[in-house]
Amino acid sequence: MTGISTNLIHGGDKYARVHDVAPPINILTTFSYPLDSSKLVKASDAGDFNVDEIVYSRLSHPNGLMAEAAISTLTGGNVVLYASGLAAFLALITHVNPKRLAIGKAYHGVHGISKIWERNHGLEILDLYDSASIDKLQPGDLVHLETPLNPTGEHYDIQYYTDLAHSKGAVILIDSTFSPPPLQDPFVFGVDFVMHSATKYFGGHSDLLAGMLITKDTNVYQKLVEDRVYLGSNIANLESSLLLRSLKTFELRVLKQSENASKIVAFLDSNRDKFKVLIKIYHGSLQKEPFVTKQAINGYHSPVFSIDLKDEETAKLFPSKLKYFHHATSLGGVESLIEWRALSDEHAAPTLLRVSVGVENVDDLIADIEQALLAAEVETINGKLNLVGV
Ligand SMILES: *Cc1c(COP(=O)(O)O)cnc(C)c1O
Is residue 211 lining ligand 1, measured as CB closer than 6 Å? Predict the structure, then answer.
């Protein structure tokens, strides 16, 4: 079997329309019908919708098809690309059409869509962590599990929730955005659907918005593709070109980002005494439960982790002390980011900082965090003491 990078670089080749090293950026919305009139088939006679016949870009387009083909080699499933991660979730809930949705901690936008469904369709939202609530699940319902979880990068037990969902006849979706392949493969545990915000690791350069659903069931895949035509949520032309560019370095980036994150977390963990402002570290690499080893393939954890600093003032100040971490939301890019999470998540503790680790040299990143923790200490602990002295 060929390796991940080989597959990602060449997996879309069958859709190449010119003999170039990289496919041209294609922004066409409409494509000429075949010149050969014998190939023209009336829509009423055409049967199942076929994405391979490129007609209009809301249906399919060359670089979107190439990207889907390449990513399919990596995930072992049928990949459907969307205009964003949330467009992917909306497509999934539309397809499953559940009466009940069991959901725990998850991306705020996924909760936002669930609320719209509650309002419009009377969807009942169940608490995934409450067994009395979960007991209400029935066949045809949907379980949503995000793991590793935003913003901490901590793992939740996929097998446990999959068995629970299936024992009730419900289907389960894993939002695997925080640990893309080859860090995690939820299909190993028998899940029904995997979703990614491709805006994050698949894109990897903080410059494209996209999402995907993956299913092993080819009939379900065909329905998702047909629904996408009418939901109008296909990935944009330009984004798919950017995504193809990104796929070529995907494996290199993701493995390096994951390694960097675990090294930084290990450094912080073993130097807790040195940093007076550092109160808590959250990351999959610090979890000891047995299921974690099964999920984190070869010990690779999410490249995202979080820390609690001693108070709100210190947490708010900290990003400004760093040289190599942009203070920005989002994650997954080659550039390291840090975010005072209270800015974008109303449920986040005001002491929490989320870190998305990039591909920079890890010693530089560690040195940067070290000096910033000490600088924050000088300003918020010593600074105050000095003031008291005056
Ligand atoms: C960003 C994100 C989403 C939403 O993706 P968009 O591409 O921004 O629509 C969903 N789930 C998780 C875990 C995310 O991080």
Answer: yes
Pocket flag, ligand 1, residue 284 (CB < 6 Å): no
Which two three-digit tokens encode residue 187? Answer: 């299909």
Q: Is 345 left (phi over 0), alpha (psi -120 to 50) or beta?
A: beta
b/e sequence 70-90, b meaning 16+ C-beta within 10 Å = bbbbbbebbbbbbbbbbbbbb
Backbone angles phi and psi of 328, in degrees to 5: -155, 160
Element (H, E) at 73: helix 62-75
Least confident of 24-33, 46-55, 337-346, 356-365: 46-55
Q: Is residue 107 within 6 Å of ligand 1 at its C-beta?
A: yes
**β partners of residue 92:** none
**Residue range 204-262, pLDDT digits in tens:** 999 999 999 999 999 999 999 999 999 999 999 999 999 999 999 999 999 999 999 99
- Residues 374-388 have pLDDT tens digits of 999 999 876 664 554
Quick count: other Cβ atoms within 10 Å of Cβ 215?
25
Dihedral angle sign, alpha carbons of residues 110, 115, 120, 123: positive
What pTM value is reported for the model?
0.95
**What are the backbone dihedrals phi and psi of residue 252, each rounded to the nearest 5 degrees, phi first?**
-55, -45
Q: Are 337 and 326 in contact (CB under 8 A)?
A: yes
Tell me if residue 195 falls in helix, strand or coil.
strand
Distance 170 CA to ligand 1 centre (A): 23
Q: Is the dihedral of CA 368, 371, 375, 376 positive or negative?
A: positive
Q: Which atom of ligand 1 is nearest to the CA of 87?
A: 9
Q: What is the 3-state secondary structure (H, E, C) of 76-134?
A: CCEEEEECCHHHHHHHHHHHHCCCEEEECCCCHHHHHHHHHHHHHHCCEEEECCCHHHH
For residue 88, the ligand 1 atom closest to its alpha carbon is 9
Average pLDDT over residues 272-290: 97
- Angle at 130 (CA atoms; ends 128, 134), nearest 5 degrees: 60
Atom of ligand 1 lying closest to residue 211 CA: 7
